[in-house]
Amino acid sequence: MTGGAAFFGRGIGGVYRCSTGISARLPLFVARIPAGFPSPADDYIDCALDLNELLVRHPAATFFVRVSGDSMTGAGIFSGDILVVDRAEQAAHNSIVIAELDGELTVKRLVREGSALYLFPENPAYRPIQVTGDTAFSVWGVVVHVIRSLRGERS
Questions:
Q1: Is the dihedral of CA 18, 21, 27, 30 positive or negative?
Q2: CA 117 to CA 22: how far, in whole Å?
Q3: Is 138 inside any structural domain?
């Protein structure tokens, strides 16, 4: 089962290495911000939050990819999002992974059904891909975080 861009829902728009040489410590406020009704905000800073510490567990094995396409919208992954991918994490049943399939990179949910292995999209417009012995397949890493700009895709 192979196919082109329509089959995969496009794929990966770019791959970027993780650089932890720069620390970006930003203030983290103690108060949680409700997503429902507004409440008075506490303006006490709890600590400095380093995004590398928050998002990157294994710096040498972590990279970022920009998503291109709509096959994972049901998992909250949209075109233009940046995925934090950890190659040191073990891919397991139901993990969202970056996989190389017949020379193309794709982001999908890894599903094991008995002895069969599938890459499942999270959009009903696309069908699952069964990984067979005839398929050139490898898992590049496990998606551990999604970074989304509310201002649209950035290059």
A1: positive
A2: 39
A3: yes
Residue 122 falls inside a structural domain: yes
- Among the listed residues 19, 68, 71, 115, the single catalytic one is 71
Which 3 state secondary structure label does DSSP give 77?
A: coil
Judge whether 40 lies within some domain. no
The answer to whether residue 115 is catalytic is: no
Known catalytic membership, residue 39: no
- Per the structure, the count of domains in the chain is 1
Predicted model pTM: 0.71
- 108 within domain boundaries: yes
Q: Express each pLDDT in 24-79 by its tens digit.
A: 554 545 445 556 655 555 455 566 667 777 788 888 888 888 899 999 999 999 99
16 contacts 64 by C-beta, under 8 angstroms: yes
Please report which confidence band the pLDDT of residue 154 belongs to, taking 50, 70 and 90 as the band edges: low
CATH code where residue 84 lies: 2.10.109.10
Active-site option among 39, 68, 108, 155: 108
How many CB atoms within 10 Å of residue 44?
Answer: 8
CA–CA dist 111, 80 (Å, integer): 25
pLDDT in tens, 107-124: 999 999 999 999 999 999
